[in-house]
């Protein structure tokens, strides 16, 4: 059974804006695993941010310092990610949810606003449905509500499923892999007639860059590549247990939540942030949810608020100002923060 080779690395934050804002990188032992997280100063109600699958706390760097002026911000690396424990063979909504229960009870220690991106949004939904005494409100940031349920995830809107399968097939052995091969066969449809593909020569070039970095920095997460989005992706991949993705592919992960039933049970305030999406005949849904999915959320949880933001799936990284505004306005509306002056 393999373990996370980076779990014991120093928790020193190197980003100047984050350290200046008072954030610390810490670890919490749940009794079963270690959860890596960063915590900001106590400047307001708790706000817990949960990254997308393959993401780490660093994806929130553009929004952490501004949000910490009004909230006490926590960003969690869920199991299988970053410096948190890897648990191959033990990944599901229920197991990740149990980690969040321990984190909220023992670290946050009061009701929290939970904002999750992508699969992190489904974790936020799980928390709100199962831990109402620990959740003040949730934000579903382009979460794959309904689209990440079987059989739709595999048979109908299969673009993300196929991407996870390629990840498992190409870099599924964490002890013997070249991360550049993650891009083998990768396709991104941009219209019904045009598809972008990663050139083989780029994969070969990236492989050499990664090997050079590993030779110079043995035992360290991969930090190479340009632009910064690619650099962060490679670092995140190097610190990601591929069995987390494998659990989505082979069906182990889905235990623990029915999206419709969870939404019907919700009593807390909900903000739905919806990014851009497209659907193509050969790929299905390219995005997390379509307009009908958003409508169904509002039908099942009619007290939810909805906001469309024209952005990539990771709204907080690509439209940080709009994300910050949406969070703070929502918190003011539900009286977690003072009313904003108009």
List keywords for this structure.
Alpha/beta hydrolase; two-stranded antiparallel ribbon; Rossmann fold; alpha/beta; hydrolase; hydrolase activity; AB_hydrolase_fold
Structure description:
The structure is a single chain. The chain has 342 residues and is an alpha/beta fold. It has a domain at 16-168 and 252-333: Alpha/Beta hydrolase fold, catalytic domain (Rossmann fold, 3-Layer(aba) Sandwich). Helices cover 38% and strands 17% of the residues. The protein has helices spanning 16-20, 61-67, 93-108, 119-130, 152-156, 159-171, 200-216, 228-238, 242-250, 259-265, 291-300, 315-318, 320-333; strands at 24-29, 34-39, 46-50, 72-77, 112-117, 135-141, 187-189, 195-197, 270-274, 278-280, 284-286, 305-308. The strands form 3 sheets. The chain has an 8-stranded mixed sheet, sandwiched between helices. A hairpin with a 4-residue loop joins β1 and β2. α4 (119-130) crosses α10 and α6 crosses α9 (242-250). The longest helix is centred in the middle third of the chain and has 17 residues, at 200-216. It is globular, with a radius of gyration of 19 Å. The N and C termini lie far apart (56 Å).
